[in-house]
Amino acid sequence: MSAESTGNASSEYIKHHLTNLTFGQRSDGSWDFAHSTADAAEMGFWSFNVDSLGWSIALGLLFSLLFKSVANKATTGVPGGLQNFVEMIVEFIDKTVKESFHKVNPLIAPLALTIFTWVFLMNVMDLIPVDVIPQIAHMAGITHMKVVPSTDPNITMGMSISIFFLIIFYSIKVKGAGGFFHELSRNPFEHPAFIPFNLFLEILNLVTKPISLGLRLFGNMYAGEMIFILIALLPAWIQWSLSVPWAIFHILVITLQAFIFMVLTVVYLAMAHESH
Hints:
Shape: globular
Largest sheet: 3 strands, antiparallel
Radius of gyration: 22 Å
Helix content: over 70%
Distance between the termini: 69 Å
Order of helices and strands: HEEHEHHHHHHH
Number of strands: 3
Strand order of the largest sheet: 2-1-3
Number of domains: 1
Number of helices: 9
């Protein structure tokens, strides 16, 4: 096989693994699944990454059912391994929230727990060998299958935009519309002449919060997935010597990214509750 054909095969392999299973509206107005990488690229705005949505919903349900089952079976005696593990996570999130959020809001701790666990589960899918689930999907007639929802910017930005709406909601609820506008217009300079400049800075700061929150998670997980894909292109005898150390290091990355996403959410909502 020539170097050019090898390069083309590698490029197609990478493109295939980075392409979502997309259902959407084509240029002729019809609705259908994308059957190739080119088809997926031609889909319009009204399209859905079915694999990202499916895996994220499935992992969310797994988290909910698992924690509900543990809560229903919880005992005051010697806890089992799973109950002990869940209690450790809950206590860890509770302590983290108390350190960052000093107001009273019953939503914040459950939200933080949901974000951390859900994002972690989405991230941990990156540890599954890159060809296993796509090959199973291919045998079932499914052309593309990305199994790491957090490598899809639609998922990460959807979560961060939802948090952004919560920030706006609590900023207005706690401070009032006038107080929120005053905070935007009188910081960092109090003089009325600087109101336009203050608004520009504060609105820019406000808008960049969800953008940085979503893109940070997406960028780190996308880079990790890309490295796994590149390792998979190497000969089989060398793959394990590279993939195992990277997977061990990646456990730290996926946990840290879930923690950062959760902590920044709590910090942003704490700032929204501050009224001076």
